[in-house]
User: Fold these one by one.
Assistant:
Number 1:
Amino acid sequence: MASQHRRAGARRNRSAGYLIAAGAVLGAALIGTFVLGRSYSQLAYTRAAFSRLPYVPAFDPVEDVTLGISPNSTYRSGGTPNQAIRAIEVNPRQTIMLAGGRAVRVIDVRAPRTLSRLVRIIGNRRWIRQSAGTVTLNAAVLVEHGSSMTIAAPVTSGLVLTVRPGVLLAAVNGSTLRIAGVDVRAGNPDVPDTSVPAAQVAGRPFLLASQGSTMAIRHSTFEYLGRDWNSSYGVSWSKNSTGSVTDSVFEHDFIGVYTNDSVGLRVTHDYFYHCSLYGVDPHSGSSRLAIEYDTADFNGRHGIILSNHVTDSVIAYDTTEGNGLNGIMMDEASTGNEIVHNVASKNGSDGVVLANSSGNTVADNTINGNRVGITVRGDTTGSRIMDNSVTGNEMASQGTGLTRNAAHGNGGQWLPRRIGLIWLSALTLLTVLLALTSGMRWQRGRLSIAAEAGR
Amino acid sequence: MLAYFRPLFEICLVVLGEWWFHVRFDEDRSKFSRYIIQITSVGREVERVNEIINEIRSYPMSMSYQIWVVIEPGHSTAYPNADRVVVVPREFTARSKYKCRALEYSRTLRQELGWTGYDTKITFLDDDTSPTWEFLETAYAGDYDICQGLTAPRVEYGFGSLTHFLLSHIDDLRFHNCMTYCSTFQGVFNAPLFVHGEGLTITGQTENLVGWNFRIFASEDLTFGCNAAHLGLRWGWFHQYIELTSPWTWTAYFKQRRRWMWGNIHAIVNRDVLPLGPALRVGLRYVLSLFTFVGSGIALVLDLLGKIHVAQAWYSLFMCSLVIWLLNFAASGWVNAGRRETGQSAASFWGRRIFQTICAVILCPFSASFTVIALIVTLYMGNPRSFEVIGKTQKTSDVEVYTADSQSVVL
């Protein structure tokens, strides 16, 4: 019977008290590690994945090519005309072929309405040629002074811009350029990253709308374009130019879309992948832009950045994922913009950043898996951050609270030293508890013996 | 925030209570020479009570013991394996009513027999509870004036209809509460917060000292246990299972909870029933439950709406708390599904156990919410002023629930 009772008491075996103490300490240490072993304070500012070379004040690239000087010409070093720099100026009533800044041929025809027609007018394969539906440019094509040109499939479904100094496609001085259904790419796929000095890659071709011009793009792709040089980044709108780009893909360009003093540009339903610097970069004084339903993923630095007085624009329903730095950023007094209904996830640095930019609204965005969900720094007076879902970031926010937002599952960085301290404390506590358990069991045993003896 | 921390607070209690049992629970079988296992029933559950008696008889008990069945008159006394069947006489009068009155009557019998010393141990069972063999052995050996084991709704847990399945899981909280609050407040602090009649084990001395003659119609277990502690008697808690059955119908569930709720309220507000200290303690528990539910519910909604912002470190702690809360329910499901029915295959047993554990976790928002909803509903239903008995098996639940309207016929 006694042995049976020992079986009955098996649940209360000798080691159970010790095991419970050990389990409790282990659990407490795990909770302590999870809660206290991480930093919830400021995270160090992430250094750029690569540094960018200093900005060099330089001439407008259209001026360079018109003058026949090197695209690397700067205010300090103007350069000399070079016959190898060639441009075709398309004017309303005249097309002029320039080499080294000098007219080598003047064709008195009305401005051709298509690129294919221009090829026929020029009739010089060393300057421009067409093979099946693909046009290859060996010279700059400048649609000038209110002229209008359409490059569209099926007549022109491919456009190759040779990699050589001075090759670009531009609409300037109130002209119009329409591109539809065209695969546009550079002659080779060597897109520079920002560590490569611009002078070494002077021949990277690009597209530009400048000086009150309009460029409208749809259903097209742009690959391997641009370099880190004034308005030569990829596809750019500058100096009061406008237009639209929709349903298009920008891949492996230096910057997907760049603007400078552009008004009312619409960038919608586009994809920006693996651009060396940014996916979308509205810059310097651009305003009333609509950047909607775009995807800017895996770009070298930011997915979308508005920088230097970019105002009154809407960034909505965009997705930015896996970019080297931030998903969406407002920088240098970019004010009065709405950043709403976007998804910013798994970016190397922060989901949404407001840097010295006031009066912006950041609302209804889904921000997850970034280093910091939302970062605010500098003067951001009047900005509203609300109704965002901020989840699973290393840190929910920096420089701002997240009242009126839903922030869940964000955590700090692990702190090895503090974790070590937690587990050292746990070990100490475990020792104390085991000793206490042992002491109490011993005391109970003594009492039992005393009771037996008393009887 | 406080509401969110409750699981963390509770796990500390669980660990403390369990640890205390393993290192400090005193057993001394030599102090006891007589053991009475008493099943108190209205008398309707003859089949179930006989089943319980036979179960006990099948155990290799290490002590001599008697099984008493205490019933109301007018019912069958066919309990062939019971040592004594006590029918509470209609003319027996006491301040207490219903079940408590029957208990008082059985006490007087023991008093007449002179079984009022410390050497007599009495374990009280309900007509829906199955004690395990280990439970009875430990209850007998426990060197305490009054002690209890762990209640678990293991009998036909999750079996049968969807209603019983859901009600079984609602009772996951009963196991959790017992594991948390009984283990510590009874075992460690000697100040019970919950007392359950199922498996309550006392000495003859304790019974004689405290008695069952309280002016109550329900919650006789809580009243007895709290008064015993108030008199300085020594409480003990041990981790052995007393297995019970969850209600089989929603009506039965609400009747049972209503009885408990109003029985407790009656005890809390009457000083001749519960002393002030225990009354405040038990009352505070109800307030805490309500606060946890309302507080955490409101906080959850405000958080989802982004109206409040919780610092990240606190949020991490809440996540730990949530995980512990889910683990609590998983543990309840695991333990409650741990009774192997006769003839059940190993595959069926383990499959069912894992299934019920998963169900316990999935259903935990429902289980927890419904418990509080029942609390509010039973408050709204009002005082039954009687001891409403519910069917304890699927068969007896199918007939009309027996509601007491006279102290002479109902437990």
Number 2:
Amino acid sequence: MHIPDGILPVSVALSGYAAAGGMTWLSLNRINKKFKNPRELIPRASLLTAAFFVASLIHIPVPPTSVHLILSGLMGVILGWFAFPAILVGLFFQAVMFQHGGLTTMGINACLMGIPALLAGALFRTRRYFNAESKVTNGLLAFLGSFLAMGLGALTAALLLIYTIPAKLDVAAERAAIITLAGAHLPVALLEGVFTALVVLFLLRVKPELLEMEEK
Amino acid sequence: MIASYSTAIPESNLLSRWEVRHKLVGLLALIFSFSFIRELWLLPLVILVSVVIYRMSQLSLAYYWSRIRLPGLFLLMLALMLPFGAGSTVLARVGPLALKLEGSLSVLLIAVKFLCIFSLVLVLFAGTPLQKMVGALRSLGLPALLAEMLIFTNRYIYQLLTDLRQTQVAAGLRGFKGRSVKALKPLAYIVGTLLVRSHNQSERVFQAMTLRGYGEESLVLRAEQVRTFDRLALVATLLLAAGLVFLQFFFFPTS
Amino acid sequence: MSSVLSVMDLAYGYPGQAAVLKAISFKVRRGERVGLIGPNGAGKTTLFLLICGIVSAESGNIEISGCPVVKGRFNPTVGMVFQHTADQLICPTVREDIAFGPQNMNLPVAEVAGNVDRAAGATGITPLLDRVPHQLSSGEQRLVALAGVLAMQPELMILDEPTADLDMRYRRRLVGMLKGMDQKTMLTASHDLEFILEVCTRVIVLDQGVIQADGEPAKVMANRCLMEEHGLELPHSLTAAWHRHGTETDCS
């Protein structure tokens, strides 16, 4: 669900940048309000961003093949408002290091991952209304959040791609394409959900502070 | 497979010497004008501009090929699907599938734009060290927090990558294969461990940095001297970009 | 006695660099505890990676208990404790971490539990079994990492710089424990020469990719000229012996 260069019309790409700019402004605004000295948090946010970047390179087995996870839901859970800047930074390095390109679409891609990430984080933090220490609460919220985050991102990406392709698709082909893309992403979204839940349960036992950084 | 942020273009090259802010704005304008194109007749022009700039950069074709392989897969998928799915004019029939004109043409359009934009992205990154790139972005309005995150993240990605590989080797020596569904839980542990380790390290990094005065000075940005050449090159690329947009807009307004 | 490890004409070099190992040959017999010493960059860690089958040799071969080492194939007969324990400990509890290897060997559940208990007992960390490895002290982490390898009951155990991050107390504990494992075959690299002297039954000096000396630790390591020539020094406890021999000669 990484939209490459050259497919989307310029208007969509530029709107993506505008939206990403707005989201960045909102995130930084929230960060500045929330923390007295946000610069103190930069080393932590950056190291975790690097860790997420590296983690997304791990091959996750889905026999007979393997996939890479995006972990945007997990980023929302751990980084809170820092998730959006972190995703932008991650996309930048993806463009640079793999030279995926994706420069014109960086804005739209940041929104496709970042907004669902923030939602997944917010959903996870509703755990304070339940039993915040229980494994079931944490696991379930983490699963739901990242499953929905991945699903939402992939679905939006699919719709964007289908409706902006230069040639007109007929209705049947359109429906087939949407079903194919959605169907292909359903297992991946499930995997993201399960994996995120497993990591969150690990952190709950090993280093619960990592799940509480946004709650202070 | 990961390529480090390297500057493959020689320092003496014209594109390396082009002041980064001007280069960034100029090449980005061109990249966006490429993605604005919807008319097939303009594609040769797009290709010509890309080829000329890529040749000027002294980057080799082998370099292009080594970088395009991965992102090219997406293109390949599209090229296999779209010609059969989109459009109404049937060109040929391959078994139950019908190869359609409109779909094929849109693949052509997308592919050329993709490949040409890719060549400019390579030129942009391969001729600019990260520190300078971030400095330029900062002076073009990138928030300080993002700029610092870029520098910091870059510093630790390689170290964490080494840590991760080492952990995977250690797990492998204890019989972990990571090829079946059962591997999901240990992999989640490995990712969790990576997060915990980087969090712990960030605390040490922060303490060490505070001792050396972090929090006082901001990212030092030295403005580079802007020469006439930098401005001329910028004007030239902006005119090119505007020209492409103009051609698309005024001569083919309907396409 | 049969040899557990046999290295023959082993050579290795990283691409574009001078050879790290040049035609190394040695055998390790069952029950031997071999110390590997030499300056940084002598090729110790590379040798370990080769023995574990993480990288493959340019030429020569390695056999463990008569079976050739194949790159990338899981081989539970050799276990390695990494220099940085953080690279090795990944599970949320000590118990799970020690069980990680035996589980991957597909041992029956009861046997896994038995191995975990024995390994924890041998390393004296039974009280830590339900703790989180990441929250332990570096000394405790070292013991957990060791137990994780012991639980797989390897025929050959490799320890890379086992005392690097230990305080005196944990160092003594480790020394006592390793000396007590009479029947274990061990290969350990360390800059802690006193540790080698105390624990090992044999020492190999590796420098510039070549075995420079091989023999009884008290003899090899008492040779001041040899030691200094290879960037090492006389262990403190041997300087007295050196003085007694009255060989206060110039090495040059």
